[in-house]
Design goal:
Elements (H helix, E strand, L loop, with lengths): L2 E6 L4 E7 L6 E8 L3 H15 L1 E8 L9 H15 L3 E6 L3 H11 L8 H20 L1
Parallel strand pairs: 1-4, 4-5
Antiparallel strand pairs: 1-2, 2-3
Helix pairs in contact: 3-4
Length: 136
């Protein structure tokens, strides 16, 4: 089975998580910093090639009342770009994933203010794990 990448999308940095080969467990991987979307796309293509990935799960930031916003519009466009690059794309509700990631860090006595990239990769891992659990 191919691995799956989870993405916590941001406008300048993106948290990345990856599934185990059997698609059961999500693990934090890295943060990609980028200036232009083409740089992000190339980084994701490189990781996908190295890790045998065909599927991306992108966190979808609906508001608490399930309404779309400016960020959901940006992600919809990014989804289209990644589909044109031959990825199978799934959108996963990401509401409260960053707060949950911070809670995990606080429980482990890790400062959230100085470890923002850790919040991003943990959020990506939470988004991906939610997808994997729902898919079972």
């Amino acid at each position: 089975m191919n691995r799956i990448i989870g993405i916590d999308f941001g406008l300048s940095k993106v948290g990345i998580a990856i599934s185990d080969p059997s698609g059961i467990i999500s693990m934090p991987l890295e943060v990609i910093r980028y200036k232009q979307q083409k740089d992000l796309v190339e980084s994701l293509k490189r990781i996908a090639s190295e890790k045998n990935v065909k599927t991306l799960v992108i966190g979808y930031p609906l508001s608490m009342n399930y309404k779309e916003n400016k960020m959901t519009e940006i992600i919809d466009k990014f989804k289209s770009v990644m589909e044109k690059n031959n990825f199978d794309i799934h959108l996963e509700d990401e509401r409260l994933s960053s707060q949950y990631a911070k809670k995990i860090m606080i429980q482990q006595n890790i400062k959230t203010g100085t470890n923002k990239e850790m919040v991003d990769v943990l959020s990506a891992s939470i988004i991906l794990q939610t997808y994997l659990d729902r898919k079972k």
